[in-house]
């Protein structure tokens, strides 16, 4: 009896440790850091760091981001894309990726940070995106990391095209 009780307690504890979060009737399991890095990172060969940095900058600007900081020595780029929930010309749900209530939100923003690092002949680009909703005082009402793999795939697809165009001197 004690053995069965011990097994049940271990199973219960294990279930709590690998908790599953419920959000909007969806079951979401937390991602590990390794899982996030896999879809946030792309490797390039036979391309210079300068070309890749320029491609990432071009794609961010093409997507409407204002680049706040770029450092070619560190391989660091950061930018922000802001939306007004009241702007009727923008589908805020589509652009911002949410169906959540925007009550009290004055500005919705997506922030990006990119890291371009050389590893011998290979260059790795890691980028992450975060959504923020700001109230009238400029304080964050909600902050969430973008964890949609397709969002990152679309971004890297555009970077691939930008690198191709740069190589063609277009």
Polypeptide structure, described:
There is one protein chain. The strands form two sheets. Strands 3, 4, 5, 6, 7 and 8 form a six-stranded antiparallel β-sheet that branches. Strands 1-2 form a two-stranded antiparallel sheet. A hairpin with a 5-residue loop joins strand 7 (122-134) and strand 8 (140-145). The protein has helices spanning 2-17, 33-40, 49-62, 92-96, 149-167; strands at 21-23, 26-28, 41-45, 66-71, 76-83, 107-119, 122-134, 140-145. It has 170 residues and is of the alpha+beta class. Helix 3 crosses helix 5 (149-167). The longest helix has 19 residues, at 149-167. The chain contains five helices and eight strands; from the N terminus they run H-E-E-H-E-H-E-E-H-E-E-E-H. Mean pLDDT is 82; it is low at 12-23.
